[in-house]
Backbone:
């Protein structure tokens, strides 16, 4: 195995149900992701983006094909995954810090040390991450005392606290306003540059994909497959201003055409 195939889907297909309820979600698909890469999955609604994340996080088994992680079949060795979704789902009865520390309570090898009450170091680790995303003054607050953007910052911290092999993000900023979303893009880029995590991001926001990713995989309508694989070479760290550059706009327009086709001309005025 080379690091080029850190995550490898080989002819992976997914079909739900049988007979009349049979739905082919993913047609046999190949995807290889190198260690440390930042890959965005984009495509029309229902094309199988979340299905790919569920396969990689072992929440779902493929109907056909094989998935490899680090050169070995998925499941052969424990895979440490960090996940963040559109809903931050922080537990309301815990402080922000305790929410961030939650994976350390659950995920081996950390949970052994957590039980042994050696969690002073874990607390420091959570506080350092919270400081990195600008939440140093909110560690002792309850989630409901945070804005939506702050909750998603805490959510990213919780997804990263246990040093995951893979960070899987499913529309993490989908519920945020555009300005907050752009701030969070920068936060996520900083975390990625700092930690060198391997990231797979599912998003409907093509600007988000173009700003954040090194590589964008475009999927066809269901049954989904990858129909285009684009490298994104803008230099890092990327400033938000890059989103106003013609080259950036061209990339977003290309992606859009691949997903929804060429824009129709406006109808001539009937009057
Ligand atoms: N458990 C299930 N049983 C039956 N069909 C399912 C199940 N999970 C997903 N599907 C179907 O598989 C297809 C792919 O779903 P998936 O959630 O991966 O799409 P998606 O690209 O993430 O969609 P969206 O962008 O709207 O979130 C959809 O048609 C969906 O209805």
Residues:
């Amino acid at each position: 195995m080379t690091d080029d195939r850190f995550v490898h889907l080989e002819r992976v297909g997914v079909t739900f149900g049988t007979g009349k309820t049979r739905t082919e979600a993913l047609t046999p698909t190949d995807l290889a992701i190198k260690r440390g890469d930042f890959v965005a999955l984009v495509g029309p609604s229902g094309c199988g983006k979340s299905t790919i994340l569920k396969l990689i996080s072992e929440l779902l088994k493929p109907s056909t094909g094989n998935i490899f992680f680090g050169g070995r079949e998925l499941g052969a060795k424990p895979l440490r995954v960090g996940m963040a979704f559109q809903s931050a789902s922080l537990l309301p009865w815990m402080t922000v810090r305790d929410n961030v520390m939650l994976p350390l309570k659950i995920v081996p090898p950390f949970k052994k040390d957590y039980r042994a009450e050696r969690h002073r170091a874990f607390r420091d680790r959570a506080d350092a991450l919270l400081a990195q995303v600008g939440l140093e003054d909110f560690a002792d607050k309850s989630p409901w005392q945070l804005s939506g953007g702050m909750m998603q910052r805490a959510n990213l911290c919780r997804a990263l606290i246990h040093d995951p092999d893979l960070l899987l993000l499913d529309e993490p900023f989908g519920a945020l306003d555009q300005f907050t979303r752009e701030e969070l893009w920068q936060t996520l880029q900083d975390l990625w540059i700092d930690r060198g995590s391997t990231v797979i991001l599912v998003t409907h926001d093509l600007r988000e994909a173009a700003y954040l990713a090194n590589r964008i995989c475009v999927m066809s309508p269901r049954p989904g497959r990858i129909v285009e694989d684009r490298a994104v070479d803008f230099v890092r760290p990327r400033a938000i201003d890059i989103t106003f550059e013609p080259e950036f706009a061209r990339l977003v327009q290309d992606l859009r055409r691949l997903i929804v086709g060429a824009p129709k001309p406006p109808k001539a005025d009937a009057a």
About this structure: Residues 1-79+166-177+198-261 form a domain with the Rossmann fold fold (CATH 3.40.50.300). The chain is about 35% helix and 20% strand.
